[in-house]
Amino acid sequence: MDFEQDQTDASQFQQYKHKLEISYRKFLDYITPHIIPRWIATYIIIIIFMGRILVVEGWYIVCYTWAIFLLNMFLKFLTPKIDPSLEQDIQNDSVEAGTNKMDENDEDFKPFIRRLPEFRFWFKTTISTIVAIFCSLFSIFDIPVFWPILVAYFIILFFLTMRRQIQHMIKYRYLPFDLGKTKYGSK
């Protein structure tokens, strides 16, 4: 008798889990095209988190870890899916081997495809901010540190990585944004 009851409880749980997954997917599908409202909601969550950190004057390690994670995600967002430096090395090796002779003026159009798409970047940013807020509720994560050093280290890290990324973008002539590009379509 208990075995049959366990089976029905398990199947009811599976049904409930399946309905919850379907609802979650519907919600994600619904909000996908609404880029600006999604980011506004995320910025509000970020402001709440930063306000909490400033008001309680603690959880600087949580904030630092969150900021490093966001920097990592931002770099993936700016980086092309196929690294042009690796592609150029492959082309150079094939030209040296004599298998592929390309003229220097022969450049194919290659659209910019991000390593981390915008939706995934938004999703990971939102989830990481919610996790950081959750972690800031527990005193176990409030490790005492001298926060100005963390801020200075993050600023240095940010400028060094962004300088390297911008040099990479200039060297391989790609622009991860649609600024100044021709738009076609109806007026």
From TrEMBL:
Compartmental location: Membrane
Classification via InterPro entries: Rer1 (IPR004932)
Membrane-topology annotation of the record: Multi-pass membrane protein
Transmembrane segments: 35-53, 59-78, 121-139, 145-162
Keywords for this protein: Membrane, Transmembrane, Transmembrane helix
GO cellular component terms given for this protein: endoplasmic reticulum; Golgi membrane
GO biological process, one term: retrograde vesicle-mediated transport, Golgi to endoplasmic reticulum
Protein family (similarity comment): Belongs to the RER1 family.
Function (record text): Involved in the retrieval of endoplasmic reticulum membrane proteins from the early Golgi compartment.
PANTHER family: PROTEIN RER1
Protein's UniProt name: Protein RER1
